[in-house]
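Here is one chain, start to finish.
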Amino acid sequence: MTLEELYRNIGGDYAQALRVLHVEKLVDKHIRKYPKNGVVDAVLEAGKTMDPTQLFEAAHAVKGISANLGLTGLSDLAAELTEEFRPGNARRHSDAEIAEILRKMESLYRKTAQEIQKYEEG
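Its structure:
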């Protein structure tokens, strides 16, 4: 599987990742690290307690890293959480709706991590 095929399989934006990182070698390096960096796990953990500060900080990290790598689905979900828990913003979603966003994020993250593992295995 090529790097571009990986991006197609995960619904990512390969061109965006190249625009940010400039060379395929860096995209390859950082996409391989993504499942091991723990940022999505931090959001999911924060979601268990619904701690607004932890959710904001963890979601903000996922949003940035995911956007830089062209992982638009994960970045979009993280952006929604970031705005929901941004200090000073009023909550718009119920805890049940936030739990659904977190379930979607976990599902998409697991699929992404599995595809990255297949990519690494050649």
